[in-house]
Design a protein that fits this description.
The structure is a single chain. The radius of gyration is 26 Å and the shape is elongated. It has a four-stranded antiparallel β-sheet with strand order 3-2-1-5, with helices on one face. The protein has a four-stranded antiparallel β-sheet with strand order 4-6-7-8, covered by helices on one side. The termini are far apart. About 30% of the residues lie in helices and about 25% in strands. The longest helix is centred in the first third of the chain and has 52 residues. The protein has about 170 residues and is an alpha+beta fold.
């Protein structure tokens, strides 16, 4: 016959529970700032990829269609943070405001980031070359060294991410 101890309790004592909660709190306090930086860095990488994708898309459309394609900010000026669009010069006259000109695609604005350049447009010719060489700077709000991306558009039309230019202004 088995001896059953009725007075025996199973579970945690209040001391064990308090120690566990304290350890979890300390780990959370250490990990949360690093997690916030990880989220910000991933968001910025995704935004840089979106910009690169739009530039590749515009260049590819110019080559495929044999017409000039322009990328321009939705808001006039050189701040592209509100979004940008890719526009086809349908009659190939160099003027992108005619009825024949078609907006191929709109790209959404950026959240918690700024995208600036000294150009108010980038035009790709049918041979894939860019009208100007320019630099697009993507900067996260409250920038630190990891929260900046610099995209260089070469005259050849190639896009290059500068891995060394990470210092915030």
């Amino acid at each position: 016959m088995k001896n059953i101890n009725i007075n025996r309790h199973q579970g945690f004592t209040i001391i064990e529970l308090m120690i566990t909660v304290t350890v979890v709190g300390i780990l959370a306090a250490v990990a949360l700032p690093a997690f916030g930086d990880l989220v910000k860095n991933n968001r910025l990488a995704a935004q840089a990829n979106s910009i690169t994708t739009s530039l590749h898309y515009a260049r590819g459309e110019a080559v495929n269609r044999g017409l000039s394609v322009r990328i321009e900010p939705l808001v006039a000026g050189t701040d592209w943070s509100a979004g940008w669009l890719v526009r086809l010069d349908g009659n190939n006259d160099g003027d992108f405001d005619d009825a024949e000109d078609i907006v191929l695609r709109n790209f959404e604005g950026l959240k918690s980031s700024n995208l600036n350049t000294d150009q108010n447009q980038i035009v790709y010719s049918p041979n894939g070359q860019a009208s100007v060489a320019t630099t697009l700077t993507l900067l996260a709000d409250e920038c630190t060294k990891e929260h900046k991306r610099v995209l260089n558009v070469k005259l050849s039309g190639m896009i290059w991410l500068d891995p060394d230019d990470r210092d915030c202004p």
